[in-house]
Amino acid sequence: MAEAVFAIPGDLKAATGGYAYDRRVIELLPDFGVPVSTLALPVSFPNPTDQDLEETRRILAARNPDSVLVVDGLAFGAFSESVLGAIKGRVIGLIHHPLFLETGLPHARKVELKESEELALKRANHIVVTSRATKRIVTSHMAISPDKITVAEPGTDPAQRATGTGAPLQILAVGAVLPRKGYDLLVEALSPLTDIDWRLTIAGALDRHPQAVEAVQNAIHTHGLEDRVTLAGKVVPATLERFYESADLFVSASLFEGYGMVLAEAMSRGLPIVLAAGGAAADTAGEAAALHVEAGNVPELTSALRRALTDKKLRDRLADAAWEAGRTLPTWHETARRFAAVILGLKP
Fold it and tell me: Which DSSP helix (H) or strand (E) runs through 275?
């Protein structure tokens, strides 16, 4: 029986889409005959110190080589050659989105990460990615054979259809405040629309990137939107559920998404969506369920938001399409089944 060992940096309980994916797969793999354990890697990844790399090398060298090692991409792509050399036996790389495409990195760091990610992915016996878009990036930009890659999209839990609020119109954005999420651009895009009665709630951790939080706060202050925009921070599931239930419009201004789990969650609740089509976001929410704009294009985003906020028939049409599409999204059971097949060496 193949035992899987998941090597994950930092706190597996952290409120991110990537860790939520890891948690659900780890929870469900035993149902498919795959026992699972975890290895905690240093929290500093993807920017480890030399000391942290040495600790990682020691941790991985001590592992039972008969187990199948699954390494979360937040760490795997930043492994040094020394760490890669310490890995014995089968290794599967789990790539949520390539590290070198993270927004705000200096060019030199992007180059370093691209080189280290390519080395790590070549060392991997197999690679699991969370979207077709990420597979395209890995094959075209990192010279990895598509035969070595399996797509296991995140699952979505069944949910009740949102009823909305209507007056004022409630806009919801979900995810940690990071440069990649483009929340400052979202506030900028909403600033000309004060003739419409709307409120924006951003639900996501505020402790991951202080500069990104400051940029959003500055945008809110500059445009005098303190009474319209709420930075709710990290919220408990029950509160997030209430946010989804009362939302009239879901917005993602993200510059890049490896999949966009929050988009799938919005679709599962039948919410109309306005999204920046960065990375896999356009694949996750199709044209029928969302208004798509170019990532980073603030005037386009303003125009799409005005259309969605002022045209109820358009919102209703998008909402119906999102609800229908949400019924076809993969379940976590299917995600775990595909992952288990890779671990067991079977065709997913």
Answer: strand 273-276
Give backbone dihedrals phi and psi of 327, rounded to 5 degrees, phi first.
-70, -20
Rounded to whole angstroms, the Cα distance separating 206 from 346 reads 41
Q: Is the peptide bond before 35 cis (omega within 30 degrees of 0)?
A: no
C-beta of residue 4 within 8 angstroms of C-beta of residue 34: yes
Rg (CA), the chain: 20
Segment 269-306, tens digit of pLDDT: 999 999 998 766 677 777 888 999 999 999 999 999 99
Backbone angles phi, psi at 276, to 5 degrees: -85, 125
pTM of the shown model: 0.87
CB distance 20 to 261 below 8 Å: yes
- Rounded to 5°, angle at Cα 267 from 262 and 268: 95
Domains belonging to the chain, first-starting first, are: 4-155+330-343 (3.40.50.2000), 169-326 (3.40.50.2000)
What are the phi and psi torsion angles at 170 (to 5°)? -95, 120
